[in-house]
Amino acid sequence: MKMLAIIRREYLERVRTKGFVISTLLIPLLMALIMVVPMLTMQSVDTRNTIGLIDPSGEYFSRLDESLSSQEDLHVSLIPLPVTGGDVAAATAGMQDQIRDESLDGGVVIGDDFVGTPKATYYSRSVSGSIVRDDLQPALDRVLRQARFARAGVPDSLHAFLSERVAWESLSVGDTGEATRRDEGGVMLLAFTLIMMLYMMVLVYGQQTLTAVIEEKSSRVVEVLLSSVPSSQLMFGKVVGIGAAGLTQVAIWTAAIFVMAGQGLSVGGISFDASYLTPMILGSFMVFFLLGFLLFSMMYAGVGALCNSIQEAQPFATPIMMFVIIPMMLMTLVLRAPGSPLATVLSLIPMFSPILMFMRVCLASPPLWQVLLSWVLMSATIWMMSRAAGKLFRVGILMSGSAPNWATLIRTLRQPD
Amino acid sequence: MAPAFLHVNDLGKSYGDVRAVDGISLEIPRGSIYGFLGPNGSGKTTTIRCIMNIILADRGEILFDGRPLDRTLLDRVGYLPEERGLYRKMKCAEQLAFLATLKSVPRKEALRRAEAWLERLGLGEWKDRKVDALSKGMQQKVQFAATFLFEPDLVILDEPFSGLDPLNVETMRDVIREQNARGCTIILSTHMLAEAEKLCDAVCLIEGGRKVLDGTLQDVRANFPLKSVRAAYAGGKEPPARLPGVAHRAFQDDSWRLTLEAGADTDAVLDALRAAGQLTLFAANRPALDEIFLSVVRERRAAAGTEAAS
Question: Of chain A residues 227-246, which have a CB less than 8 A from chain B?
Fold first, then answer.
């Protein structure tokens, strides 16, 4: 009953703040922007790049132009540049002048004997310009292949047959045994969005526990509260109340992602696929947030009970933060081989599970027992942490005076009740 | 006197090598206003925190109504800590209601009482303002309301008047008297002895973690020798220059203050005064609490000093 009152206050005081409302609305809006803006700019790139072609033989311009025009979503318009008296060097110099004064966006130089030595040199102000390369390279490839086919005497009827490319499809095998199609880019993007969200939320809300405990301590409210409720109820009430506020926000954001993914939005050609957000992924996202939050906020609550200011808490907060940063650094390791024994072991370490195990759930469909085991291990750790934090709360909450250090913390933990 | 409501028996609490409370025993009568007095750092707050079960005592026994303090009893005890503690970002009425629900008052009832108390303390307009916006004195009144809102049977007030102007002190004194009349036992911990004297039925003085003296206000005074009397004559006549048992005389506030010699007989002094003319005033100049306590504390410190020296 009393704990409910504490949970209620903790929850409402958070949810009612402007900051909470703004961040809850702003993040989905930002995500939408991140997705929509590239889509808009993609379309606006429609203003084509004018690319000059230096072709001493004069044979290839029309073929290349034809090959380009067969492509969808073209960003290049090609113009032939004159080569007077076969002087490629002079023509190239002239082209470079044009690029410099921006009358050309770029230029391509191919050799006299393109079919014999297929080499193309691309000139532009910026070396990156992948849009142009992505258009020109395959077009040149096609021109080369056709010329070589012609040279080798391959009949026209066989051209299409010989040029056929492998049709690639990625399927993921889930626990239910059915294989579902996945757009790898989309899956990665969604997975990383969720992982980043998890990472951020666990940290942000964990630290809110720290701030809340310290604020209560420094404003001396804690003495009034302790004259009404036992310290354990106070601690659990606070942690649960803050966690509930976090869960509210996470739920709203997840719903927003779900809706956006359902709209079939895409980023840079990578499309979101709502079907990817399986109940397993969404459900474990919530569970990992909740367990991760509880784990970290228990640590923060215990530390907060000893400290009188945020400054005093710094030396403790940094090592706790390492538990979140280390798995972020191990992500690529796990990503390379999500099913390897190393990845399995790392993802079962309770402090790392919210990020590493969840990443495996997103990308590798690990065996269910491993996921459940990580939840059990996390819960056990949370229980131990809550005992330690409860002790720190009971003994440390009224401590004041000199700034605490790790020695104080260990001494306090060892003290008899 | 009524039977004791709160028993403290041989309470002890040390912080490291410092003995903050060193074997204090108290009996606080039901329905009394009990002054828990002592200089700064004498162990008052530590004793109170032990009584409220906020910190664990090293030894000793605390009984409410013959029972040790448990969770249900906690709901009958109010506590105003020395350093005020309110959530700065919470609205006044909301805050009071929250603190009352922690004492098991149903939420609706708590809100109703919160508004009534704020109204009564002249803070009606402030009920939806955050505590941050209030002056120190107003915050103190809110804290006062929080302590009494749930109609406790026992209230412990730790330095309740610090930082209040005389007008507010008067208001708080009225609240304390009224709640006491309702049947609430009140423990008033303070170093402001004049305030204690106005309010308390019984007092206890502690110094250096130990009890120095306790009892009803009357007993404490009775055990302390009278040091002066006041007298005045009709027509403003001066008292005789030499009187038996009087060491010194001085005119002060429309009357004569006669300082008595040690062991002087007050009856003899009165007889001598009456023989000299028609008295309009003769009064025992009761020693103020602070005089008594100052002399007791000084005596003890002097004794401790010679002990340490020898």
Answer: 227-230
Contact call for B81 and A226, based on CB within 8 A = no
- b/e sequence B169-195, b meaning 16+ C-beta within 10 Å: bebbeebbeebbeeebbbbbbbbbbeb
Q: Which of B52, B77, B85 sits opposite A222 (nearest CB)?
A: B85
Interface membership of B90 toward A (CB under 8 Å): yes
Q: Which of A382, A385, A388, A386 is nearest to A413 (CA)?
A: A388
In this prediction the pTM is 0.72
Q: Which of A415, A409, A408, A402 is nearest to A309 (CA)?
A: A402
Nearest-neighbour CA in chain B from A279: distance (Å):
39
Q: A260-281 pLDDT, tens per residue?
A: 766 655 555 555 556 667 778 8
Which of A5, A9, A219 is opposite residue B85, by nearest beta carbon?
A219
Chain B residues whose CB is inside 8 A of the A1 CB are 104
ipTM, two decimals: 0.79
Q: Which residues of chain B have a CB within 8 Å of the CB of A2? A: 101-102, 104
The answer to whether residues A266 and A329 touch, using CB atoms and an 8 Å cutoff, is: no
The reported pLDDT for the residue numbered B1 is: 46
Q: How far are the Cα atoms of A340, A364, B232 from residue A343, in angstroms, in the given order?
A: 5, 11, 99
Give the C-alpha separation, A92 to A107, whole Å. Answer: 9
Q: Point out the least confidently predicted range of A126-130, A362-366, A388-392, B295-299.
A: A126-130
- Detail the DSSP E strand segments found in B81-227: 154-158, 185-190, 202-207, 210-216
Identify the DSSP state of B233. E
